[in-house]
């Protein structure tokens, strides 16, 4: 129990917590909109690339510990960066072409037909193999930790493997638990977006991000070739938006 004077003093301190000495609260930094957040993957390690603001521009980066790359024989630079505007200036015109009135029927039909190829089976197999490999690697790293290896290094290895596990598990759930869509269902999703050319041109970053997610876009950046490939899986169905390579445009 405390007396009234002490209680009042503590309440005053709490009320002024986080304020500057002059009594003016420091404004919070504004949150940046990364239009491709969660959609862009590194073509080397397949992990999601993270938004990063550099030189007054939005970028996406993938950082990979050198020790981990060496241990797993992956030729991955310490950091991979790509500018957001370089991707968008190719992505938006590509979407406009793919969903233009003259190509809409062909695009929707191609997306529907692509649900029935062997891509899903290969992806399911790859996800299961990744999970098995992750389990083996985790056992090896934990054994190395018990043997006296550097805890800081081994902990990073373990964290990276666990991140791969989460991604593979999510991919497996998505691929094994989804249903396919008819051409009419796909067309309905596309048509609810209206004129994509106009929408993408006028949309602010937050709205544009929602449009990309509605289309189920997945992008992969390959830094060696400096290309981006795009795939669309509306409402979780695994379909291709266009033939492979159409968006493989140098950054």
Write the layout of secondary structure elements.
Blueprint: H1 4-15, E1 40-42, E2 50-54, E3 57-63, H2 66-71, E4 79-83, H3 84-98, H4 104-113, H5 119-146, H6 151-177, H7 183-192, H8 196-202, H9 205-215, E5 217-222, E6 227-232
Parallel strand pairs: 1-5
Antiparallel strand pairs: 2-3, 3-4, 5-6
Task: Describe what you observe in this structure.
This protein has helices at 4-15, 66-71, 84-98, 104-113, 119-146, 151-177, 183-192, 196-202, 205-215; strands at residues 40-42, 50-54, 57-63, 79-83, 217-222, 227-232. Helix 3 (84-98) packs antiparallel against helix 8 and helix 5 (119-146) runs antiparallel to helix 6. It has a three-stranded mixed beta sheet with strand order 1-5-6. Strands 2-3-4 form a three-stranded antiparallel beta sheet. The radius of gyration is 24 Å and the shape is globular. Residues 236-251 have low confidence and may be disordered. With 251 residues, the chain is of the alpha+beta class. A hairpin with a 4-residue loop joins strand 5 and strand 6 (227-232). It is built from nine helices and six strands.
At a glance:
The chain has 251 residues and is of the alpha+beta class. Helices cover 50% and strands 13% of the residues. The protein has helices at 4-15, 66-71, 84-98, 104-113, 119-146, 151-177, 183-192, 196-202, 205-215, and strands at 40-42, 50-54, 57-63, 79-83, 217-222, 227-232.
What are the salient characteristics of this protein?
9 helices, 6 strands, alpha+beta, globular, single chain, 3-stranded mixed sheet, 3-stranded antiparallel sheet, 251 residues, disordered C terminus
